[in-house]
Amino acid sequence: PLALGLYTVNAVYGDTITMPCRLEVPDGLMFGKWKYEMPNGSPVFIAFRSSTKKNVQYDDVPDYKDRLSLSENYTLSIKNARISDEKRFVCMLVTEDDVSEEPTIVKVFKQPSQPEILHQADFLETEKLQMLGECVARESYPEGNVTWYKNGKVLQPVEEVVVINLQKIVDKSTGLFTMTSSLQYMPTKEDANAKFSCIVTYYGPSGQKTIQSEPVVFDVHYPTEKVTIQVLPQRSTIKEGDNITLKCSGNGNPPPQEFLFYIPGETEGIRSSDTYVMTDVRRNATGEYKCSLTDKSMMDSTTITVHYLDLQLTPSGEVTKQIGEALPVSCTISSSRNATVFWIKDNTRMQTSPSFSSLQYQDAGNYICETTLQEVEGLKKRKTLKLIVEGKPQIKMTKKTNTNKMSKTIVCHVEGFPKPAVQWTVTGSGSIINKAKETKYVNGKFSSKIVIAPEENVTLTCIAENQLERTVTSLNVSAISIPEYDEPEDRNDDNSEKVNDQAKLIVGIVVGLLLAALVAGVVYWLYVKKSKTASKHVDKDLGNIEENKKLEENNHKSET
């Protein structure tokens, strides 16, 4: 490269400078020398090499002591390049008749350190011009230039908004430059996450280059412009017994730490941190809640509805009633929304609500009235009625001759609750029969059955006893050899109804036949009477006394 038409060597600070002697070696060369020129033009010789004796001598120049090397082709090397090596060096080749000279310009370059943003502000405030920081790039040669960036875009100076001041300081001992660029900046809310950086532009042996600093993000402070209240935890509905937290927040930075909370029924705001906790809320907590800054500015509100569900079962708990009694049952619901009500009896859902006009044993059991608010998760109530239906023992005895004609089955049908204990005895001897078999006790009913083959007539007694009463019933049973009417065992309600229907039918038929016979008799009597009257009129007309007599005799016979 040429500088002002001269050959130039570009060197990197700290590296070795190599300067070839750009002259042709002439015939009769005696020696070669290198010198550099002082700013005033005076020469300073630094190296000598004889062409005949092949020896090299270096002049006593303090700046170049132990740094020089001159080769056989008269190329000069300078170790550990310094800024002070930027000079005009001259190669001289000397013969007896002539001295040839060729100058070389040396340029030294030093890359600066990576720029750093120092003295950073702890935070930035909107609407206020303040020092953001200083971008520092050290030990550069030649001097460089510093540019500030925000989010990758160049920050141009703007009066009272962006103020940039660049200082360049040179180290006299090394000749290296340190560039310091300060940035004063007035931020906005949008700068909250902005990335600030700086870039230093410098020149190296191959041209212009840049180095960028690490980006820096600043905490931007700005006042609150809006207050927001919310209910935590966030859920669609709130029910009695829940714990809720009111949280108030402002969009400023830093956010406000204290607020005023306004509770329904309270005239003054309650000073608190950004949260207000309410535990085990009740239905009277329903209403509008507000919060504001402590200066009562920037208020926000929300409405809370506390859902509730009440259930009243009458009667409830354990209830004991007598069979045949009436028992009104009511399940009353009070709720914040329409509730679903259903009944369960002994773990089975009922189709209708229970109603007892005449209690039966099968009505006994565990009844549950349960209600839910389907739109409110977890809001469910239930109450239980344990119904006990008591009754004194009722007995009906039946006998039946078995098909083999060798024995008879005697059954004692028992109703009652608590379950009666049953004993069998034979009247006369009074002995207890222990071979009876009992059916399953269902709905207050069961049967005790014995099988006997009496050789003579006997009387069997069935005794049923519970906490309410002792009932005794006897039945005469003939000897197995004596035929007797066999009574059927207890029929179910359907069979009883069929028998009753058949009896009604028979009675109806008999009554119908009697009415038909009565009607026929009346008709016949009317006919005979009419015939008798007609005969009397004929007698008068004919005047035949004999015939009248005969007719009267015939009529008399007919009446008879």
From TrEMBL:
Looking at the keywords, is Mitochondrion present? no
State its location(s).
Cell membrane; Cell projection, Axon; Cell projection, Dendrite
What positions does the domain Ig-like occupy?
Answer: 103-212, 223-305, 324-386, 393-473
Q: Name one GO cellular component term.
A: dendrite
GO terms under biological process: adaptive immune response; cell adhesion
Alphabetically list the UniProt keywords: Adaptive immunity, Cell adhesion, Cell membrane, Cell projection, Disulfide bond, Glycoprotein, Immunity, Immunoglobulin domain, Membrane, Repeat, Transmembrane, Transmembrane helix
InterPro entries for this protein? CD80_C2-set, Ig-like_dom, Ig-like_dom_sf, Ig-like_fold, Ig_sub, Ig_V-set, Surface_Rcpt/Adhesion_Mol
Q: Which organism is it from?
A: Spizaetus tyrannus
The name under which this protein is listed is: CD166 antigen
Residues spanning the membrane: 505-527
Stated membrane topology is:
Single-pass type I membrane protein
In its keyword annotation, does this UniProt entry include Oxidoreductase? no
Any one Pfam family match given in the protein's UniProt record, by short name: C2-set_2
Q: Which domain of life is it from?
A: Eukaryota
